[in-house]
């Protein structure tokens, strides 16, 4: 398996839908919105097996002090090969001079993974969310 890593913001709806639904993420039901979100992101790094999108990570940043990492996902057929770690390390390198690099794992079981990569749980913080209910699930 030869995985290539690319910095691109151009994806087809089909590529996004397949990847996101493969890991059970509801956002895969809205591939055009995800494509638009990726185009508007500060950084996007994707993993490819030939012409198949098998993983990606994106970041939003303010240009100098704070970056928020989001959408770290790898197709289940490709998990366990270090792809997620490579994607995460690529963005950590890009943001090495920023004061804060934040990530909010969607599931508590993923906290240990991010701690292994140098992140720590904020002592007095909590993730919060306002969900727009016009998206049907």
Describe the structure.
- With 137 residues, the chain is α+β, with helices and mostly antiparallel strands.
- The chain has a single domain (3-116), classed as Gcn5-related N-acetyltransferase (GNAT) (Aminopeptidase, 3-Layer(aba) Sandwich).
- Helix content is 27%, strand content 26%.
- It has four helices and five strands; from the N terminus they run βααβββαβα.
- The protein has a five-stranded mixed β-sheet.
- A hairpin with a 4-residue loop joins strand 3 and strand 4.
- The radius of gyration is 15 Å and the shape is globular.
CATH class call: Alpha Beta
Biggest sheet architecture: 5 strands, mixed
Q: Spans of 5+ residues with little confidence (pLDDT < 50)?
A: none
CATH fold name, please?
Answer: Aminopeptidase
Based on Cα principal axes, name the global outline.
globular
Structural class: alpha+beta
What Rg, in angstroms, do the CA atoms define? 15 Å
Strand content: 25-35%
Number of strands: 5
Secondary structure tally, helices: 4
- In order across it, which strands form the biggest sheet? 1-2-3-4-5
Helix and strand element order: EHHEEEHEH
Question: How many structural units, i.e. domains?
Answer: 1
Q: What CATH architecture do you see?
A: 3-Layer(aba) Sandwich
Cα(first) to Cα(last) distance is: 35 Å
* CATH superfamily heading: Gcn5-related N-acetyltransferase (GNAT)
Mean pLDDT: 91
